[in-house]
Design brief:
The protein is built from twelve helices and 30 strands. By secondary structure, it is an alpha+beta fold. The strands form five sheets. Strands 18, 19, 20, 21, 22, 23, 24, 25, 26, 27, 28, 29 and 30 form a 13-stranded mixed β-sheet that branches. Strands 3, 4, 5, 6, 9, 10, 11, 14, 15, 16 and 17 form an eleven-stranded mixed β-sheet that branches. Strands 1-2 form a two-stranded antiparallel sheet.
Length: 581
């Protein structure tokens, strides 16, 4: 999705969010920060060492300390660190601390110590890894985060207050640190973190068939990781690194076939989806008192699920930001909108790790970006998520139509043969479409759409994928960045074991599976990814349905025929969160 924003001035207004006037030389509001924290240091000193955790395993840790004119600064500083499966030293041809999303090395000049540690069993760390980029959820690794935090807090350069940063898997590693509540961990800044990993990864129960690709734990091979590992300072001849790599030979890269929420991984010996979900540890997290600033990007895919649910389930101090762009790509956000996520890290950590009263926790806790708004209005704030002024508005399916009017009394249906052409660039063009009339006024959709689709199939199961597009008057369509999925056999609904924002929740257990009866209609209810998008007057909203997914759908020959019903007593519809303007 293109960010149509020219923000060289970056003058969006948050009104009362400013905690001090420009005349006083102090400004603190989302994306802007002046007069509270000075850049006092011009460089850093990098050292690396092994840290021994409670079971004796040695983990490789890089530490960056502030320096001036090549001399390391004396004194005690707050520490911000990242626990990573992606190489503590090198990212995109440079330092991980400088290049990995969040770019916390920029905090060093403001008087922070920054650290990065390799997961156990990866790169230069000793030990056995189980789960690669999600291996932090094994119990040993969860307490690695505790032990590293407490080690950093005890160092002579530390003021005893520790924070964490990172995105995606390293957003998740912050959540697992939260689950063990290290006493010196005061604040975390998880970007694109998960909350309920089954709902995030096996969206709508759409796990791949046996032998299909896993939807978790993907990345470079163990051998490739080992080749790019960087030894610590004490390992002058590389002997320690070779010993660490030898221990990696027993790594378990994947949880194997775990099709249901309660499936037990034979490889790991636990119910992996439950074990690896922060929601499982909600009580412990909420007792910790550790502050959380969760961040996500609108167009990043299903990894965007975690932060809004994290925010709404926390009793600890909390904030939430939705930015434009793709997964973890805050560099493009900075380039195209002028909003710097590192400023948000600095404001947040200044408050929690240095005790600076900059108002970051008194302002509205939710910041979000709306596509197609003028630059000065695109960034907004809210006291709640979802927004208080949303109107849940059903748009009913008809014979190719999408209408906010009541469904027609006469029942109808639309049929198509399942298209397995998942590599075909015209795949979405071949889907089943429902298009609204031209909108009479600008219409903002901000929140979580929910689809209610009445469906029948000639097969015993069906995969349903829905997406939303913006259709301009000239017929040009723009994908607004949201999809939703549900496997028909996993359609059973239940009360979520956590705050689910009033959205449908599916148990996803083996016992909840309900195969289809050929030709018998059933209702599928599921949410789509959240969004904030302004549909312009004269544009149309289009919903497209497809019935196959490249990673998850098993092929059946001949391809089944699927029917979607509308009108009458089977009013298929999508409920959109329309915002009063």
């Amino acid at each position: 999705m293109h960010l149509r924003i020219a923000c060289a001035l970056f003058l969006f207004t948050f009104g009362a969010l400013t905690v001090a006037s420009a005349s006083e030389g102090k400004v603190s509001r989302p994306g802007q920060y002046h007069g509270y924290s000075a850049a006092l240091f011009d460089g850093h000193e990098l050292t690396s060492s092994y840290v021994k955790v409670r079971d004796g395993t040695r983990l490789a840790v890089d530490v960056f300390r502030p320096a001036n004119k090549g001399r390391v600064a004396k004194g005690k500083f707050p520490v911000v660190w990242m626990h990573t499966p992606y190489n503590r030293r090198d990212t995109q041809g440079g330092l991980t601390a400088a290049n990995y999303p969040g770019k916390a090395l920029q905090l060093v000049k403001y008087g922070y110590v920054v650290a990065v540690a390799d997961f156990r069993g990866t790169y230069a760390s000793f030990g056995r890894n189980a789960g690669f980029n999600r291996g932090e959820w094994q119990d040993a690794a969860r307490f690695d985060a505790y032990d590293i935090t407490e080690w950093l807090a005890a160092q002579p350069y530390s003021n005893g207050k520790v924070g964490m940063w990172g995105c995606s898997a390293t957003g998740g590693s912050q959540m697992q640190a939260l689950s063990t509540a290290p006493p010196h961990l005061k604040a975390i800044f998880p970007m694109s973190c998960e909350w309920d990993v089954y709902s995030w990864t096996a969206v709508g129960g759409m796990t791949p068939p046996p032998g299909g690709p896993t939807q978790i734990m993907r990345g470079a091979s163990r051998e490739e990781r080992d080749r790019s590992a960087v030894p610590v300072d004490e390992d002058k001849d590389g002997a320690l690194l070779r010993s660490a790599i030898a221990e990696h030979a027993n790594n378990l890269e994947t949880a194997g076939y775990v099709p249901y929420r309660d499936s037990v991984s034979k490889e790991f010996g636990n119910a992996w989806w439950i074990k690896s979900s922060p929601s499982t540890y909600r009580d412990a997290i909420n007792k910790s008192g550790i502050a959380v600033y969760a961040a996500t990007n609108w167009a990043e895919g299903f990894t965007g699920y975690g932060p809004p649910f994290t925010f709404n389930n926390l009793a600890t101090p909390k904030k939430l930001i939705f930015g434009p762009g793709r997964h973890c790509d805050w560099s493009t956000v900075l380039k195209e909108t002028g909003f710097d996520i590192v400023i948000e890290e600095l404001r947040f950590f200044d408050h929690w790790l240095r005790g600076i009263d900059n108002g970051v926790m008194r302002e509205a806790p939710v910041t979000y970006f709306t596509y197609n708004e003028p630059a000065e209005k695109a960034w907004k704030s809210s006291r709640t998520w979802p927004l208080e002024n949303e109107r849940r508005t059903p748009f009913h399916f008809g014979a190719g139509s999408l209408s906010p009017a009541q469904p027609v009394a006469t029942p109808g249906e639309t049929r198509m043969r399942v298209n397995y052409g998942v590599d075909d660039t015209t795949f979405w063009k071949s889907g089943m479409t429902f298009v609204s009339d031209a909108l009479e006024a600008d219409t903002e959709i901000t929140g979580h759409p929910v689809a209610h689709v009445w469906l029948a199939s000639t097969s015993a199961d069906a995969d349903l994928v829905a997406r939303i597009d913006d259709v301009a008057p000239d017929g040009t369509a723009t994908y607004v960045g949201v999809e939703g999925k549900l496997r028909a056999s996993m359609r059973m609904l239940a009360k979520a074991p956590y705050e689910n924002l009033g959205l449908p929740w599916h148990p996803g257990t083996e016992a909840s599976r309900q195969p289809l009866q050929s030709g018998q209609p059933v209702e599928l209810e599921f949410d789509l990814m959240p969004l904030s998008y302004l549909f312009k007057a004269g544009h149309r909203i289009r919903v497209t349905l497809q019935f196959a997914d490249a990673r998850a759908t098993a092929r059946v020959e001949p391809a089944p025929e699927v029917a979607v019903f509308h009108g009458g007593d089977k009013p298929s519809r999508i409920v959109l969160p329309v915002i009063s303007r």
